[in-house]
Protein backbone atom coordinates (compact mmCIF):
# COMPACT_ATOMS: atom_id res chain seq x y z
CA UNK A 1 0.00 0.00 0.00
CA UNK A 2 1.04 3.63 -0.38
CA UNK A 3 0.46 5.93 2.55
CA UNK A 4 2.38 9.11 3.26
CA UNK A 5 1.06 8.99 6.83
CA UNK A 6 2.82 5.73 7.74
CA UNK A 7 5.22 6.88 10.45
CA UNK A 8 8.93 6.21 10.16
CA UNK A 9 11.79 7.97 11.87
CA UNK A 10 13.21 10.74 9.72
CA UNK A 11 14.38 14.32 9.97
CA UNK A 12 12.83 16.66 7.42
CA UNK A 13 11.88 20.29 6.91
CA UNK A 14 8.29 21.24 7.70
CA UNK A 15 5.81 20.27 5.02
CA UNK A 16 8.17 17.89 3.20
CA UNK A 17 6.79 14.43 2.30
CA UNK A 18 10.03 13.15 0.78
CA UNK A 19 10.37 10.20 0.52
CA UNK A 20 6.94 8.60 0.22
CA UNK A 21 6.99 5.34 2.16
CA UNK A 22 5.72 2.20 0.43
CA UNK A 23 5.24 -1.05 2.39
CA UNK A 24 4.13 -4.58 1.42
CA UNK A 25 0.50 -5.60 1.42
CA UNK A 26 1.48 -8.95 2.93
CA UNK A 27 4.41 -10.37 4.86
CA UNK A 28 7.17 -11.66 2.60
CA UNK A 29 5.98 -9.94 -0.59
CA UNK A 30 8.93 -9.91 -2.97
CA UNK A 31 10.05 -6.64 -4.47
CA UNK A 32 9.86 -7.64 -8.12
CA UNK A 33 6.24 -8.80 -7.89
CA UNK A 34 5.34 -5.70 -5.90
CA UNK A 35 6.96 -3.54 -8.54
CA UNK A 36 4.60 -4.88 -11.19
CA UNK A 37 1.64 -4.08 -8.95
CA UNK A 38 2.88 -0.67 -7.83
CA UNK A 39 4.69 0.66 -10.90
CA UNK A 40 2.06 3.20 -11.94
CA UNK A 41 1.64 4.46 -8.38
CA UNK A 42 5.41 4.72 -7.91
CA UNK A 43 5.84 6.75 -11.09
CA UNK A 44 3.04 9.11 -10.05
CA UNK A 45 4.52 9.48 -6.56
CA UNK A 46 7.96 10.31 -7.99
CA UNK A 47 6.56 13.34 -9.82
CA UNK A 48 4.83 14.61 -6.68
CA UNK A 49 7.36 13.94 -3.92
CA UNK A 50 10.54 13.24 -5.91
CA UNK A 51 11.24 9.89 -4.29
CA UNK A 52 9.85 6.73 -2.73
CA UNK A 53 11.21 4.37 -0.08
CA UNK A 54 10.20 0.72 -0.43
CA UNK A 55 10.63 -0.88 2.97
CA UNK A 56 9.82 -4.37 4.24
CA UNK A 57 9.83 -6.18 0.89
CA UNK A 58 11.77 -9.38 0.24
CA UNK A 59 14.91 -8.55 -1.75
CA UNK A 60 16.87 -11.82 -1.78
CA UNK A 61 19.97 -10.52 -3.57
CA UNK A 62 21.41 -7.72 -5.70
CA UNK A 63 20.17 -9.47 -8.85
CA UNK A 64 16.59 -9.01 -7.62
CA UNK A 65 17.30 -5.30 -7.12
CA UNK A 66 18.77 -5.11 -10.63
CA UNK A 67 15.64 -6.74 -12.09
CA UNK A 68 13.40 -4.36 -10.17
CA UNK A 69 15.22 -1.28 -11.47
CA UNK A 70 15.23 -2.64 -15.02
CA UNK A 71 11.48 -3.39 -14.83
CA UNK A 72 10.64 0.31 -15.25
CA UNK A 73 11.24 0.04 -18.97
CA UNK A 74 14.64 1.62 -19.54
CA UNK A 75 18.02 -0.14 -19.89
CA UNK A 76 20.27 0.47 -16.90
CA UNK A 77 23.07 2.92 -17.63
CA UNK A 78 26.83 2.60 -17.46
CA UNK A 79 28.60 5.03 -15.14
CA UNK A 80 30.41 7.24 -17.68
CA UNK A 81 32.41 10.46 -17.22
CA UNK A 82 32.30 9.79 -13.49
CA UNK A 83 33.56 12.11 -10.80
CA UNK A 84 34.00 9.58 -7.98
CA UNK A 85 35.36 6.05 -7.66
CA UNK A 86 32.81 3.24 -8.07
CA UNK A 87 32.91 -0.43 -9.01
CA UNK A 88 30.42 -2.37 -11.09
CA UNK A 89 28.67 -5.14 -9.16
CA UNK A 90 28.37 -8.38 -11.09
CA UNK A 91 24.92 -9.98 -10.84
CA UNK A 92 23.27 -12.98 -12.44
CA UNK A 93 20.65 -10.61 -13.87
CA UNK A 94 23.14 -8.57 -15.89
CA UNK A 95 24.99 -5.25 -15.71
CA UNK A 96 24.06 -1.79 -14.50
CA UNK A 97 24.54 -2.01 -10.73
CA UNK A 98 27.39 -0.14 -9.04
CA UNK A 99 28.74 0.39 -5.58
CA UNK A 100 27.90 3.73 -4.05
CA UNK A 101 30.80 6.19 -4.04
CA UNK A 102 33.87 4.55 -2.55
CA UNK A 103 35.04 7.39 -0.30
CA UNK A 104 36.45 6.70 3.18
CA UNK A 105 33.77 6.01 5.80
CA UNK A 106 34.56 9.12 7.86
CA UNK A 107 33.86 11.49 4.95
CA UNK A 108 30.54 13.13 4.09
CA UNK A 109 29.38 13.39 0.49
CA UNK A 110 27.29 16.57 0.09
CA UNK A 111 23.87 16.69 -1.54
CA UNK A 112 23.91 16.53 -5.32
CA UNK A 113 21.89 15.30 -8.30
CA UNK A 114 23.64 12.46 -10.09
CA UNK A 115 25.84 13.66 -12.98
CA UNK A 116 24.40 17.17 -12.87
CA UNK A 117 27.97 18.33 -13.60
CA UNK A 118 27.46 17.11 -17.20
CA UNK A 119 24.99 17.78 -20.00
CA UNK A 120 23.72 14.18 -19.81
CA UNK A 121 22.23 12.58 -16.74
CA UNK A 122 19.88 9.79 -15.64
CA UNK A 123 16.29 10.70 -14.84
CA UNK A 124 15.92 7.74 -12.47
CA UNK A 125 18.25 6.47 -9.77
CA UNK A 126 17.79 3.57 -7.35
CA UNK A 127 19.61 2.78 -4.08
CA UNK A 128 19.48 -0.61 -2.36
CA UNK A 129 20.70 -1.12 1.19
CA UNK A 130 22.26 -4.58 1.34
CA UNK A 131 23.95 -3.98 4.71
CA UNK A 132 22.90 -1.14 7.01
CA UNK A 133 25.71 0.47 8.97
CA UNK A 134 25.38 0.09 12.75
CA UNK A 135 26.20 3.79 13.08
CA UNK A 136 25.44 6.53 10.55
CA UNK A 137 25.66 5.86 6.84
CA UNK A 138 22.39 7.56 5.90
CA UNK A 139 21.71 8.65 2.33
CA UNK A 140 20.23 12.11 2.96
CA UNK A 141 18.00 13.53 0.23
CA UNK A 142 16.44 16.90 -0.63
CA UNK A 143 13.71 18.29 -2.87
CA UNK A 144 15.54 20.13 -5.68
CA UNK A 145 12.50 22.36 -6.28
CA UNK A 146 12.55 23.49 -2.66
CA UNK A 147 16.31 24.06 -2.84
CA UNK A 148 15.80 26.27 -5.90
CA UNK A 149 13.19 28.32 -4.06
CA UNK A 150 15.39 28.57 -0.94
CA UNK A 151 18.39 29.98 -2.78
CA UNK A 152 18.28 33.80 -2.95
CA UNK A 153 17.09 35.20 -6.28
CA UNK A 154 20.29 37.20 -6.79
CA UNK A 155 22.31 33.96 -6.69
CA UNK A 156 19.91 32.14 -9.01
CA UNK A 157 20.24 35.01 -11.49
CA UNK A 158 24.04 34.92 -11.32
CA UNK A 159 24.10 31.18 -11.95
CA UNK A 160 21.41 31.15 -14.66
CA UNK A 161 23.86 31.27 -17.64
CA UNK A 162 25.48 28.07 -16.38
CA UNK A 163 28.54 26.79 -14.57
CA UNK A 164 32.00 26.13 -16.01
CA UNK A 165 33.57 22.91 -14.69
CA UNK A 166 37.33 22.54 -15.00
CA UNK A 167 39.00 19.21 -14.22
CA UNK A 168 42.68 18.30 -14.24
CA UNK A 169 43.08 14.54 -14.23
CA UNK A 170 46.20 13.26 -12.57
CA UNK A 171 47.36 11.88 -9.29
CA UNK A 172 44.85 13.93 -7.25
CA UNK A 173 41.64 12.93 -9.04
CA UNK A 174 40.01 9.85 -10.50
CA UNK A 175 42.31 8.76 -13.39
CA UNK A 176 41.00 9.78 -16.80
CA UNK A 177 41.30 6.16 -17.94
CA UNK A 178 38.72 5.21 -15.31
CA UNK A 179 36.50 8.23 -15.97
CA UNK A 180 36.30 7.58 -19.72
CA UNK A 181 36.54 3.76 -19.51
CA UNK A 182 39.40 3.73 -22.02
CA UNK A 183 43.14 4.28 -22.28
CA UNK A 184 42.86 5.64 -25.83
CA UNK A 185 43.48 9.35 -26.39
CA UNK A 186 41.45 9.20 -29.60
CA UNK A 187 38.43 7.71 -27.83
CA UNK A 188 38.60 10.36 -25.11
CA UNK A 189 38.77 13.12 -27.73
CA UNK A 190 35.81 11.66 -29.62
CA UNK A 191 33.74 11.43 -26.41
CA UNK A 192 34.57 15.03 -25.55
CA UNK A 193 33.67 16.23 -29.03
CA UNK A 194 30.27 14.52 -28.81
CA UNK A 195 29.63 15.91 -25.34
CA UNK A 196 30.69 19.52 -25.80
CA UNK A 197 33.77 19.15 -23.59
CA UNK A 198 36.94 21.06 -24.39
CA UNK A 199 39.97 18.87 -23.66
CA UNK A 200 43.72 19.22 -23.81
CA UNK A 201 46.53 16.79 -23.07
CA UNK A 202 49.17 17.83 -20.56
CA UNK A 203 52.61 16.59 -19.60
CA UNK A 204 52.96 13.09 -18.12
CA UNK A 205 49.76 11.91 -19.82
CA UNK A 206 47.61 14.37 -17.87
CA UNK A 207 44.31 15.71 -19.14
CA UNK A 208 42.38 18.95 -18.62
CA UNK A 209 38.70 19.28 -19.47
CA UNK A 210 36.41 22.31 -19.49
CA UNK A 211 32.66 22.14 -19.89
CA UNK A 212 29.85 24.67 -19.53
CA UNK A 213 26.78 23.05 -17.98
CA UNK A 214 23.45 24.00 -16.48
CA UNK A 215 22.99 25.40 -12.99
CA UNK A 216 19.19 25.50 -13.14
CA UNK A 217 16.99 23.16 -15.16
CA UNK A 218 13.31 22.67 -15.96
CA UNK A 219 11.88 19.24 -15.32
CA UNK A 220 10.67 17.83 -18.67
CA UNK A 221 7.41 16.45 -17.23
CA UNK A 222 6.40 18.73 -14.35
CA UNK A 223 7.76 21.96 -15.87
CA UNK A 224 9.18 22.99 -12.49
CA UNK A 225 12.50 24.76 -11.93
CA UNK A 226 15.13 22.77 -10.06
CA UNK A 227 18.57 23.59 -8.69
CA UNK A 228 20.66 21.16 -10.73
CA UNK A 229 24.44 21.39 -10.55
CA UNK A 230 27.47 20.41 -8.54
CA UNK A 231 29.20 23.77 -8.29
CA UNK A 232 29.52 23.41 -4.51
CA UNK A 233 31.11 19.94 -4.81
CA UNK A 234 33.68 20.76 -7.47
CA UNK A 235 34.62 24.20 -6.13
CA UNK A 236 37.85 24.39 -4.17
CA UNK A 237 35.89 25.61 -1.13
CA UNK A 238 34.54 22.05 -0.77
CA UNK A 239 37.98 20.97 0.45
CA UNK A 240 39.00 21.16 4.08
CA UNK A 241 40.99 24.39 4.73
CA UNK A 242 44.31 22.58 5.24
CA UNK A 243 43.83 20.47 2.10
CA UNK A 244 42.80 23.52 0.08
CA UNK A 245 45.93 25.38 1.12
CA UNK A 246 48.15 22.48 0.10
CA UNK A 247 46.41 22.07 -3.27
CA UNK A 248 46.59 25.76 -4.11
CA UNK A 249 50.27 25.84 -3.17
CA UNK A 250 51.03 22.77 -5.29
CA UNK A 251 48.93 23.45 -8.36
CA UNK A 252 47.90 27.08 -8.37
CA UNK A 253 44.39 28.02 -9.47
CA UNK A 254 44.40 26.76 -13.06
CA UNK A 255 45.71 23.26 -12.33
CA UNK A 256 43.58 22.29 -9.34
CA UNK A 257 42.16 18.78 -9.66
CA UNK A 258 38.68 20.30 -10.05
CA UNK A 259 37.07 23.69 -9.69
CA UNK A 260 34.01 25.62 -10.82
CA UNK A 261 33.51 29.10 -12.25
CA UNK A 262 30.67 31.29 -13.43
CA UNK A 263 29.76 30.82 -17.08
CA UNK A 264 32.01 33.71 -18.13
CA UNK A 265 35.00 32.11 -16.40
CA UNK A 266 35.05 34.47 -13.43
CA UNK A 267 35.60 32.97 -9.96
CA UNK A 268 32.72 31.99 -7.70
CA UNK A 269 33.13 33.48 -4.25
CA UNK A 270 33.21 31.23 -1.22
CA UNK A 271 30.46 33.33 0.36
CA UNK A 272 28.06 32.59 -2.51
CA UNK A 273 28.58 28.85 -2.23
CA UNK A 274 28.17 29.09 1.54
CA UNK A 275 24.63 30.36 0.88
CA UNK A 276 24.02 27.52 -1.58
CA UNK A 277 25.16 24.98 1.00
CA UNK A 278 22.93 26.58 3.62
CA UNK A 279 19.92 26.18 1.32
CA UNK A 280 20.77 22.52 0.76
CA UNK A 281 21.19 21.97 4.50
CA UNK A 282 17.82 23.59 5.20
CA UNK A 283 16.05 21.15 2.85
CA UNK A 284 17.81 17.97 3.95
CA UNK A 285 15.78 14.85 4.74
CA UNK A 286 17.52 12.04 6.60
CA UNK A 287 16.59 8.58 7.87
CA UNK A 288 18.48 5.44 8.86
CA UNK A 289 18.71 2.63 6.34
CA UNK A 290 17.25 -0.78 7.09
CA UNK A 291 18.66 -3.84 5.33
CA UNK A 292 16.53 -4.59 2.27
CA UNK A 293 15.41 -0.99 1.72
CA UNK A 294 15.14 0.29 -1.85
CA UNK A 295 14.88 4.02 -2.53
CA UNK A 296 13.94 5.30 -5.98
CA UNK A 297 14.42 8.96 -6.87
CA UNK A 298 13.57 11.21 -9.77
CA UNK A 299 17.15 12.44 -10.20
CA UNK A 300 16.06 15.94 -11.22
CA UNK A 301 13.51 16.40 -8.45
CA UNK A 302 15.60 14.95 -5.60
CA UNK A 303 19.25 15.28 -4.65
CA UNK A 304 21.11 12.72 -2.54
CA UNK A 305 24.16 12.57 -0.28
CA UNK A 306 26.02 10.23 2.09
CA UNK A 307 26.62 10.60 5.81
CA UNK A 308 29.76 9.27 7.56
CA UNK A 309 29.48 5.82 9.10
CA UNK A 310 31.19 3.20 11.22
CA UNK A 311 31.24 -0.52 10.70
CA UNK A 312 30.11 -2.45 7.60
CA UNK A 313 27.88 -0.74 5.08
CA UNK A 314 26.85 -1.79 1.57
CA UNK A 315 24.57 0.32 -0.60
CA UNK A 316 24.39 -0.32 -4.34
CA UNK A 317 23.09 1.96 -7.07
CA UNK A 318 21.45 1.72 -10.50
CA UNK A 319 20.54 4.47 -12.97
CA UNK A 320 18.33 4.68 -16.08
CA UNK A 321 16.48 6.90 -18.56
CA UNK A 322 19.10 9.26 -20.04
CA UNK A 323 18.21 12.91 -20.51
CA UNK A 324 20.21 15.98 -21.47
CA UNK A 325 20.31 19.51 -22.80
CA UNK A 326 22.84 19.53 -25.64
CA UNK A 327 20.90 22.11 -27.60
CA UNK A 328 21.20 24.72 -24.86
CA UNK A 329 24.94 25.41 -24.92
TrEMBL record:
Report keywords, A-Z: Antibiotic biosynthesis, Oxidoreductase
TauD/TfdA-like domain residues: 28-318
Which organism does this record belong to?
Cupriavidus numazuensis
Which cofactor(s) does the record list? Fe(2+)
> What is this protein called in UniProt?
TauD/TfdA-like domain-containing protein
Keyword Kinase part of the UniProt annotation: no
Keyword Oxidoreductase assigned: yes
Q: Which domain of life is it from?
A: Bacteria
